[in-house]
Each structure stands twice: as C-alpha cells, then as structure tokens.
Design goal:
Elements: H1 3-8, E1 15-20, E2 26-33, E3 38-42, E4 45-52, E5 59-68, E6 72-73, H2 77-87, E7 94-107, E8 114-125, E9 128-141, E10 144-154, E11 164-165, E12 170-185
Antiparallel strand pairs: 1-4, 1-12, 2-3, 2-12, 3-6, 4-5, 5-7, 7-8, 8-9, 9-10, 10-12, 11-12
C-alpha cells in the first residue's frame, strides 16, 4: 500500500509532533582536501517532525530541519572561518531541509518499527535551493523517532567555491557528505 494513499485517504490524521534537540544526536559533514580528510560537526540545529502511526505504515507528514551555519565547527579556527566565508554566512545564516513528500517507505524488519525511506525535499545551502532525495532509516520508538543516513553533495551545486588555503596550495574537494543520526522527541 502506498504511503501517499495513507496520507491522502481522507481519514483524519492523528499526527504526533516531535522536535529535534541539540546534544542528543550527531550531524556532521565530511570531505577531502589535498592535505587531509576533514570533518565538521553541527552544534546548533532545530526542527519539527509530524508522524501519524495509526495506519498499516506510518505516515511522515512533515519534516523540517534548520542548522545554524556558523555552528559548523571543525576544532580549527582558520578552517571554520574559511567555511563561513564559503557559505557566505553574513547573508545566509541557516542551512535548511524541508520535506515535500515521502517517495518511498518500506519496513526493514517485520514486525516493523524501522523503515527505509526516501524523502523528497528542498535543501537550501548558502541561499541556493535544490531538490534532493534524502535516503534514511526511520526508527519509531516510544516517545521518539530516529532518523539515520548520509547524503553526498557537491559544493558547486550550491554555488559554493570549494575553500582554498595557503595561497591555493591546499584545496578542498568539491564532494562532501552529510552524515546524520538524529533523535526527535515529543
């Protein structure tokens, strides 16, 4: 049975609201450079998720995530500064994902409280919005929802020039990956 049919069936939805809290999960960005691989941790994020579990399959009705761009921290001040310059954080304070639809949802185990999902939505980075399909594993527990996955991206797709250092002798690779293991609570 299609998730779209469950969401649009006309049955009143009994959605439970969940929020993302800082410090209960991990979101990080990884990439490469001509010198070494690197990792940046997201320290400030917020979001809301609405989920109806009354049907045969859960119906994810809403998922919005917001990251404070200057909360990306590498542990190295100069790298953080280069990151903020590349993201133009003076003009673009946040990175946002807004789900538009659930493209697929399949149980991982039976009986299931864990599902493989593909979420279609808009990712906005440095003021540039692009449609993406976010693959993740959705786990439903009492009082909370876990979302885990990773998403490869190219900086240039968002109008970001990969940062350089030491007069261009150190160059960051265009490809990055966002890894997330988030906990959403009621």
């Amino acid at each position: 049975m299609s998730i779209a049919i469950l969401v649009l069936s006309g049955t009143p939805a009994i959605a439970q609201e969940f929020s993302l809290k800082n410090g209960t999960d991990d979101v990080l960005v990884t990439g490469t450079s001509t010198l070494h691989d690197w990792e940046i941790t997201v320290e400030e994020k917020s979001g809301t998720l609405a989920l109806d579990t009354s049907g045969e399959l859960p119906a994810l009705q809403r998922l919005n995530l917001q990251i404070v761009a200057e909360s990306l921290k590498s542990g190295k001040g100069s790298m953080d500064k280069n990151t903020y310059n590349a993201l133009n954080t003076d003009d673009h304070k946040d990175i946002r994902f807004r789900m538009k639809e659930v493209r697929s949802l399949e149980p991982v185990q039976s009986p299931g409280k864990q599902y493989k999902a593909v979420l279609g939505g808009t990712l906005t980075v440095a003021g540039q919005a692009r449609e993406i399909d976010l693959e993740c594993v959705l786990t439903i527990e009492t009082g909370r929802v876990l979302l885990k996955g990773s998403e490869p991206l190219r900086m240039t797709d968002y109008g970001i020039e990969p940062p350089k250092a030491l007069l261009g002798t150190i160059k960051t690779g265009d490809e990055i990956e966002i890894h997330f293991n988030t906990v959403w609570t009621r």
